[in-house]
């Protein structure tokens, strides 16, 4: 048996070897009962192929097996209405086995009103992933997630200056002529018409929007209620990632200040109008089908 390399290359080599040996074993077992001795020999090779990777993996250095200590990380979470500043906050510390994290998730009316979730603590979830965003989405939002692996390293996100301006003035500075209520909060009473601002909508926003939903940042989440201006298409599309999500339901209306209805009513989910993700499922099922066929044939599992 070759010496263990203690690396991913050793694992890949052992895996490819065991695959070939399993297929060879399946072929031999199909030939005839007269080749019993050869089948026994192949079975021994299969056992070596299957146990070889396990033995090699014991030498692979991982955070758990190498005895490395967990990181000390700052721990904090809060909901802000408007700009935030953490420069004078005394954070508590927590021990984290997979590193530290800090993240910000912000939803804005586009007219100088926002709800922002800020969280620092232990890293949770996958180590990699894709963040899908659209800088032209309405209502505008922003998400940033950062992971680090040294003691107290999650101290970079300190102020609202780390976020882009989600309420830019229109350029050119022209208006659509539509007036809407604008507000955002985490309780329905935060966003009644009486507590909302009346705003003149930007040129490309000629209808009013009202809705509710939930903002999620790791294991930290909050309900959200919002009124603002919207484009005639009334497309609701927010930032999504394996660590953050804004799920909004809402409706649009035409006419000045028409978005005055109750925000606790049921709305159509934004995910219901989003493009279906069936192709991803199809690809996954295809891979599973091919894998089952490849393994089923040589092992005599296929009909």
TrEMBL record:
What is the annotated localization of this protein? Cell membrane
**Membrane topology field:** Lipid-anchor; GPI-anchor
Q: Which InterPro entries match?
A: CD59_antigen_CS, LY6_UPA_recep-like, Snake_toxin-like_sf
- Using the record's annotation, list all stretches that form the UPAR/Ly6 domain: 91-155, 177-260
Q: What is its main location?
A: membrane
Q: Which domain of life is it from?
A: Eukaryota
Q: Name one Pfam family in it.
A: UPAR_LY6
Q: What is the lineage of its organism?
A: Eukaryota, Metazoa, Chordata, Craniata, Vertebrata
Gene3D superfamilies per record: CD59
Q: Which UniProt keywords apply?
A: Cell membrane, Glycoprotein, GPI-anchor, Lipoprotein, Membrane, Signal
Q: Which GO terms describe its cellular component?
A: plasma membrane; side of membrane
Tell me which PROSITE patterns the record gives.
Answer: LY6_UPAR (PS00983)
Q: What is this protein called?
A: Ly6/PLAUR domain-containing protein 5
For this protein, the record's PANTHER family field holds: LY6_PLAUR DOMAIN-CONTAINING PROTEIN 5, UROKINASE PLASMINOGEN ACTIVATOR SURFACE RECEPTOR-RELATED
Entry keyword Glycoprotein: yes
């Amino acid at each position: 048996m070759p010496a263990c390399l203690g690396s991913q290359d050793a694992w890949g080599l052992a895996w490819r070897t065991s695959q070939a040996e399993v297929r060879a074993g399946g072929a031999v077992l199909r030939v005839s009962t007269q080749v019993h001795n050869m089948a026994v020999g192949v079975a021994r090779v299969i056992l070596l192929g299957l146990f070889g990777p396990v033995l090699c993996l014991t030498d692979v250095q991982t955070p758990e097996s190498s005895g490395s200590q967990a990181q000390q990380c700052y721990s904090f979470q809060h909901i802000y209405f408007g700009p935030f500043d953490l420069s004078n906050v005394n954070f508590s510390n927590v021990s984290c086995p997979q590193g530290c994290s800090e993240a910000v998730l912000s939803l804005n009316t586009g007219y100088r009103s926002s709800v922002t979730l800020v969280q620092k603590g232990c890293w949770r979830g996958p180590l990699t992933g894709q963040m899908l965003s659209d800088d032209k989405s309405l209502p505008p939002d922003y998400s940033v997630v950062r992971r680090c692996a040294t003691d107290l390293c999650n101290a970079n996100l300190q102020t609202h200056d780390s976020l882009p301006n989600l309420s830019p003035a229109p350029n050119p500075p022209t208006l659509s002529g539509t007036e809407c209520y604008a507000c955002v909060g985490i309780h329905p009473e935060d966003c009644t018409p009486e507590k909302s601002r009346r705003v003149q909508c930007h040129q490309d926003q000629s209808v009013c929007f009202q809705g509710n939903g939930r903002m999620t940042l790791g294991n930290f989440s909050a309900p959200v209620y919002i009124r603002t201006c919207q484009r005639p298409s009334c497309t609701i599309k927010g930032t999504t990632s394996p660590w953050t999500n804004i799920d909004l339901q809402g409706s649009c209306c035409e006419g000045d200040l028409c978005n005055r209805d109750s925000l606790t009513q049921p709305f159509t989910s934004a995910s219901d109008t989003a493009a279906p993700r069936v192709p991803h499922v199809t690809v996954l099922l295809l891979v599973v089908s091919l894998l089952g066929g490849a393994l089923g044939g040589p092992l005599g599992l296929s009909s």
